[in-house]
Amino acid sequence: MFRRLSSCHNIEDLRALAKQRLPGPIFHYIDGAADDEITCRRNTAAFDDCDLVPNVLVGPEKVDMSVTVMGQKLAMPLFCSPTALQRLFHHDGERAVARAAEKYGTMFGVSSLGTVSLAEIGAMTSTPKMFQFYFHKDRSLNAAMLARAKQAKFDVLALTVDTTTGGNRERDLRTGFTTPPRLTLRSLLSFAVHPAWSLNYFARGGFELAELKEHAREGSDIAMSVSEYFSNLLDESLNWSDAEALRAQWPGPFCLKGVMSVEDAKRAIDIGADGVMVSNHGGRQLDGSRAPFDQIAEIVDAVGDRIDVILDGGVRRGTHVLKALAAGAKACSGGRMYLYALAAAGQPGVERVLGNLRAEIERGMKLMGVRRVSDLNRSMLRYR
Known about the structure:
The chain is built from 15 helices and 12 strands. By secondary structure, the protein is α/β, with parallel strands linked by helices. Strands 4-5-6-7-8-9-10-11 form an 8-stranded parallel β-barrel, surrounded by 6 helices. Strands 1-12 form a two-stranded antiparallel ribbon. The two termini are 36 Å apart.
């Protein structure tokens, strides 16, 4: 079925359009996860096990959706989590997402495996920006990335802590996905039946990992899977002392991305973190791990008065955001939600998904009888 952006009313519609427009290996990289993909599905399904209990006759004609997260004022309680390789999904890559996030007054995260330089992103946007830091074995690369994030005036540094080895992403093994795409008979056939994507990819400059290319050929000149990249180039010995030392080198807000336990959230406070992103990497790493929404209340109860707790992953609807906020999260973030949109239509696609979710959050707050995000609380939730 041929779809257009104007007919995309939710994330599932955008997913279908992305599948229509992307070569198979690239779509399945976005869509897939580790092993049996149980955790990936659970990340969203977890919200279905919790019901909202609205209050009526409160009359909130206008609602305030703004939140402050790690010192950053956002116009809505949802932001774009950092994701890798965005130019594979649309030729504008991170530029498209940065502009869309700025339009809606929310934060945008750039990955260490980004395809547009930090300097360019820093110069083109004024809204809050997060740099997601992968801790490499190459210490000179780590130092260079940190220096460039400072120079580009990024606001928040997020150290990803759940990728010391690559997850078993079986879809990528089946499709042969690599970055950059490895040219084989199978991949060329997939490119041939998606001529618009192929023309844009091959005619708009060479693919590269902007912040890594001067230190590592892997991922820019040498094709490899993301799992191989994690396993071969990231530092498997990453520990709390390394995280604390990195925190000491960063002058602004600092968070850990990939925290799932109360114990780790407490240690994040001990090393001076300003936030934790409760995340299982979209189910791409440890299949069978707990969903962020299933874990959010436990972490908030333990540390929510001392550190900002962010739910990362599984969000597909504005009501999912409301449930997470009622459970105690300061805000939500996600990757696939906007990657489908980016692949479907570039910047207009990302604007559409952010606009749809913003409208759903606003409508949901009015139907819940709350005027501001802080009015949401546990009394409005019932778990099945």
